[in-house]
């Protein structure tokens, strides 16, 4: 039984923490970029979207270089006796990097679709930028934000390539469901793999329903 | 009083305007894209200017020379956007309450209820903007902007999206708004008749500049240039030279037509030989018996029957080279048809001098 429960447990932790971090980071950066009109906007946008375009194993490789024994962040963290490679936090780091572009792009599109007049109206009525964001922009962009979150969640659940590179396959510690599926097939335990596949399928269908629901609520472009 | 003097470079033209406005309604009139909305946005602080000064009731809102730029949140300038910009996720009541949330609930509730009654939207409190008609949305937008008692109320083409019937009743409501809103109201519109109806003072925009600003009667009585004249509805122009000035009368000789007499306008340096352009609204052109003052024989070239008037085009001049337009009462008989030869009259009292008409002015009906 624990060959199902353990990966399920690891994935649960990873996906929830990842979604929370990506949610906050994605919205914050999307908000900044939606308003930013500097010279380098296109370039910065490109950097944020990069993990979406690169093969996950390449991203994983990059992360390994960064956090590995001889990498800059790896050396810095070892001063505090912390290693990222092959630890559970690595699953979160890999998943956040891979899901961030999705959250960022969708949230930014959502913010840019909000009628600037309603934000301006709020300003003339005395609302500070903070209050405009929380009481006007976010509610108006809610369907887009929710759709983005579901997307990020689903992506985090299915994250494999980068996770395997950085976190490895340590059952009970870093083996997420996708990794467990792969290694079960490798070891010939097709039946175990199938159970895990069904679990993921079930969660995916629910996600798809939620995603469709929210996407339908996004107002059509005028 | 609101004093504005701003400059802003824009793609296409440079905005450079200076004006002042007092309590009451001032209309900003001009073609789309001439800078009216941009001016409102600058007054509200929603858009930056390159250079400028804005003073509202003694408080300096903007002074680029001293690096003062008060943010829109505290300028106390109310704004009604062209598309109303109601908050779609809030009810009508919450929309109106948005600007006064810092007040005690009892007080803000009282303000909102009173406003909703005055604006005839008392029963709509729990509805959402998507459930309102355009006229209702506009009233909510107005109530929301007035609730925090702004010192200036800026209305950006508030009536442009409404059909004629709703527009009429809302115009009357806006006028009666002044019973409980005593601040300065600036109304932007591209519709001259509407601007004239609603305001006491007007500013006429032309490519980022104000061509003429002042009491509406003065503008209609002496338009500063061709654009203003055109906007004011002076469809017919007479371009000629001053041939005589006798006492209070001035005679203009228009090539190919006769002499036209007008009263000598005050405050204008006019001399014999000067080139002058006169304008007259189509409504004031009459059919007359022959040999009246300012009459000209013409041949009817087009007739359009409107509900309560007849729009008539006629050619005049030695070679019938000029075409003019007249709005006449519906003909009692069938005398008004293409080809009819009639005497038309441009009454002295309705001819106005168009200032700075320039070289492009031509006798005849303004195109359009």
UniProtKB/TrEMBL annotation, chain A:
The chain crosses the membrane at residues 6-34, 46-66, 86-104, 193-214. Keywords: Cell membrane, Membrane, Molybdenum, Transmembrane, Transmembrane helix, Transport. GO terms for cellular component: plasma membrane. SUPFAM superfamilies: MetI-like (SSF161098). It comes from the Bacteria. It is found in: Cell membrane. It is a multi-pass membrane protein. This is Molybdenum transport system permease. It comes from Dehalococcoides mccartyi (strain ATCC BAA-2266 / KCTC 15142 / 195). The gene is modB.
Automatic annotation (TrEMBL), chain B:
GO terms for molecular function: ATP binding; ATP hydrolysis activity. It comes from the Bacteria. Keywords: ATP-binding, Nucleotide-binding, Transport. InterPro entries: AAA+_ATPase, ABC_SmlMolc_Importer, ABC_transporter-like_ATP-bd, ABC_transporter-like_CS, Mo/tungstate-bd_C_term_dom, P-loop_NTPase. Residues 1-232 form the ABC transporter domain. SMART domains: AAA. GO terms for biological process: molybdate ion transport. PANTHER family: SPERMIDINE/PUTRESCINE IMPORT ATP-BINDING PROTEIN POTA, SPERMIDINE_PUTRESCINE IMPORT ATP-BINDING PROTEIN POTA. This is Molybdenum ABC transporter, ATP-binding protein. The lineage of its organism: Bacteria, Bacillati, Chloroflexota, Dehalococcoidia, Dehalococcoidales.
């Amino acid at each position: 039984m624990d060959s199902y429960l353990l990966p399920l447990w690891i994935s649960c932790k990873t996906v929830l923490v990842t979604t929370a971090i990506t949610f906050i980071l994605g919205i914050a950066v999307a908000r900044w970029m939606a308003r930013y009109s500097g010279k380098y906007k296109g370039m910065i946008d490109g950097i944020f979207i990069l993990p979406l375009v690169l093969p996950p194993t390449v991203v994983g490789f990059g992360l390994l270089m960064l956090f590995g024994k001889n990498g800059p962040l790896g050396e810095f963290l070892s001063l505090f006796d912390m290693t990222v490679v092959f630890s559970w936090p690595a699953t979160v780091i890999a998943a956040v990097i891979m899901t961030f572009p999705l959250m960022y792009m969708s949230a930014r599109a959502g913010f840019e679709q909000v009628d600037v007049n309603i934000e301006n109206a709020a300003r003339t009525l005395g609302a500070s930028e903070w209050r405009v964001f929380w009481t006007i922009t976010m509610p108006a962009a809610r369907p887009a934000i929710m759709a983005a979150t579901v997307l990020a969640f689903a992506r985090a659940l299915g994250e494999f390539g980068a996770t395997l590179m950085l976190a490895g396959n340590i059952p009970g510690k870093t083996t997420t469901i996708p990794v467990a599926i792969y290694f079960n097939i490798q070891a010939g335990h097709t039946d175990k793999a199938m159970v895990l596949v069904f679990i993921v399928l079930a969660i995916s269908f629910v996600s798809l329903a939620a995603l469709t629901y929210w996407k339908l609520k996004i107002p059509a472009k005028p | 009083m609101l004093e504005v003097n701003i400059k802003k470079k824009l793609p296409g033209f440079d905005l450079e305007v200076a004006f002042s406005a007092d309590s009451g309604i001032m209309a900003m009139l001009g073609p789309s894209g001439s800078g009216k909305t941009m001016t409102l946005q600058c007054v509200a602080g929603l858009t930056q200017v390159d250079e400028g000064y804005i003073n509202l009731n003694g408080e300096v809102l903007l002074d680029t020379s001293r690096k003062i730029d008060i943010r829109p949140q505290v300028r106390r300038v109310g704004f009604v956007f062209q598309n109303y910009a109601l908050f779609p996720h809030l009810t009508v009541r919450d929309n109106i309450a948005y600007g006064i949330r810092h007040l005690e609930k009892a007080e803000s509730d009282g303000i909102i209820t009173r406003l909703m009654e005055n604006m005839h939207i008392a029963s709509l409190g729990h509805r959402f903007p998507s459930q309102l008609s355009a006229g209702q949305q506009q009233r909510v937008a107005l109530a929301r902007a007035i609730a925090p008692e702004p010192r200036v109320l800026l209305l950006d083409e508030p009536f442009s999206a409404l059909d004629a019937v709703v527009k009429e009743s809302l115009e009357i409501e806006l006028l009666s708004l002044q019973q409980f809103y005593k601040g300065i109201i600036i109304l932007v519109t591209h519709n001259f008749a509407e601007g004239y109806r609603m305001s006491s003072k007007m500013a006429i925009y032309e490519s980022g500049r104000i061509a003429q600003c002042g009491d509406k009667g003065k503008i209609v009585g002496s338009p500063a240039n061709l654009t203003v004249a055109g906007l004011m509805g002076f469809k017919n122009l007479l371009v000629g030279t001053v041939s005589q000035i006798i006492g209070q009368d001035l005679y203009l000789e228009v090539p190919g037509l006769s002499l036209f007499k007008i009263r000598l306008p005050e405050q204008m340096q006019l001399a014999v030989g000067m080139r002058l352009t006169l304008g007259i609204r189509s409504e004031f052109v009459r059919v007359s018996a022959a040999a009246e003052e300012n009459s000209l024989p013409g041949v009817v070239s087009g007739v359009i029957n409107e509900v309560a008037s007849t729009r008539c085009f006629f050619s005049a001049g030695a070679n019938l080279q000029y075409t003019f337009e007249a709005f006449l009462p519906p003909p009692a008989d069938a005398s008004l048809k293409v080809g009819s030869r009639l005497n038309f009259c441009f009454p002295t009292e309705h001819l106005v001098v168009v200032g700075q008409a320039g070289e492009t002015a031509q006798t005849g009906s303004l195109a359009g």
